[in-house]
Write a structure and sequence with these properties.
By secondary structure, this protein is mostly helical. The chain has a single domain, classed as Farnesyl Diphosphate Synthase (Orthogonal Bundle), CATH 1.10.600. It is built from 13 helices and no strands. Helix 8 runs antiparallel to helix 11. The longest helix is centred in the first third of the chain and has 29 residues. The N and C termini lie far apart (60 Å). The relative contact order is 0.13.
């Protein structure tokens, strides 16, 4: 007798929980800097978190839907299953879920106008449109090799910067340094994902950076992101956010951990190894955000 998988479990998998640290990390870091500046406000911070999570989930639903339509998700694909491509979810249902997630994100984001002004609507709409355009529309960013830039900008610079801005009313260079580190480590999640899918992506015409420039270039991007993240901790320590000796030790530890992940990427022979590394990248991003935030708050 064959058991039927619960619908909630299918939807949970389609939301891709391993990618959600990409939504949480920038809000945590932006709020830590707001705390350090004496401007922390849990209300806009919570709204930013809800908005970021909804945009991330909406983007994941859009990716599931549009990659199926464009043929990138097919029987030859390796890695975690996709709800539409595997037949577990009808394309129309996934499209409705995508619209619902982005619609809720827009409504939630509107409330931030009370703290940051109407110009934040432009930022919110741009984030949502980019989430759809990552794999959808006439010029999908992921298919043009612009996915990494999208992640760096919206899940790094914009997310951290906006979270800090709605609490403090300005954005400092130090916040942007931290935002760049978060953006780079978030992009590493995409690097591993595209590294694993390079063969099927190329066949489907999805010209990710890995497809365009090869796996050697992807590995270089991966380790440079870890180098940038470690350097930001050192820079913030040098600028007096926390003791320099602590900053140097933490930066060295994070870079060593990044090199260990790079070795896994370099030596991986199976999709299963890359799937595990993908999970580690999400955890690593969360740990980095938590440690950096703790250092900034503790001073």
């Amino acid at each position: 007798m064959t058991s039927v998988e619960p619908r909630w479990r299918i939807w949970l998998a389609a939301a891709r929980p391993r990618t959600l640290p990409a939504a949480v990390a920038p809000v945590v870091v932006g709020s830590a800097f707001a705390w350090q500046a004496g401007a922390f406000d849990g209300r806009p911070a919570g709204i930013c978190l809800a908005f970021a999570l909804l945009v991330q989930i909406g983007t994941n639903f859009a990716n599931d839907y549009y990659d199926f339509l464009k043929g990138a998700d097919n029987a030859a694909r390796v890695g975690p299953r996709r709800a539409v491509a595997s037949g577990l979810m009808a394309p129309a249902a996934m499209r409705r879920a995508m619209i619902l997630a982005f619609g809720l994100a827009f409504l939630v984001g509107l409330s931030l106008v009370a703290w940051g002004g109407w110009w934040l609507v432009v930022i919110g709409v741009a984030s949502i449109v980019s989430g759809i355009a990552y794999t959808g529309g006439p010029w999908p960013l992921g298919y043009l090799g612009l996915g990494d830039l999208f992640v760096f900008v919206f899940f790094g610079l914009v997310a951290v910067g906006a979270t800090f801005y709605v609490q403090a009313g300005y954005v400092s260079h130090d916040v942007l340094y931290a935002a760049a580190a978060i953006g780079a480590l978030t992009a590493n999640i995409l690097v591993v994902n595209n590294y694993r899918d390079a063969g099927t992506d190329a066949a489907a015409g999805k010209r990710t950076l890995v497809v365009r420039f090869g796996k050697t270039s992807a590995r270089a991007q991966f380790v440079l992101a870890h180098g940038l993240a470690a350097a930001v901790i050192g820079l913030l320590a040098w600028r007096g956010f926390f003791p320099r000796a602590v900053g140097i030790a933490v930066a060295a530890g994070f870079f060593a951990g990044g090199l260990a992940q790079w070795r896994v990427l370099h030596s991986a022979q199976t999709a299963a190894e890359l799937v595990r590394l993908l999970g580690r990248c999400g955890v690593w991003l969360a740990v980095y955000a938590a440690v950096l935030s703790a250092l900034v708050v503790a001073g």
